[in-house]
Amino acid sequence: MMLAGCSSIRESRGYIRDPILTEVIQPGIDNRRSVEGTLGRPTFTSAYGEPTWYYVSSTTGRKPFVRPRIRQHSVLAVRFDEAGNVSEVDRSGIDEVVYLRPDGDKTPTLGRERGFLEDLFGNIGRVGGAGMPGGGPGGPGGP
Fold this sequence. Notes:
- The structure is a single chain.
- The protein is elongated.
- The chain is built from four helices and five strands.
- The chain starts with a helix and ends in a 22-residue tail after the last helix.
- The mean pLDDT is 78.
- Strands 1, 2, 3, 4 and 5 form a five-stranded antiparallel beta sheet that branches.
- By secondary structure, it is an alpha+beta fold.
């Protein structure tokens, strides 16, 4: 019972990669229709530049109560020319994965640090005071 609680949990995410099907795609022979018929719809497509379809596959493993770790990762990029024919097929793996480490629980921002009292009392007298343009009754947007 204790060993079952410590075993690794494996999860597959994205495109389920079939090595035989991905090797079949050939530049100059295939087009968008044949690629979609062979591999299915892409994980995502390029928004700018030359038309490219991306098939992303990831397998993660994790122990209970621990962040998942990527075990396998592959990206198949299929580039098309203006006529819709395959011009290039690119394959990459886990060696190109970048691990980002967020800086704790805070997001750094530009500007100055304000204390609690400045937040609480900082705007008193600045906005909408009597005699100020746009402030008080009868000003723009007022009754």
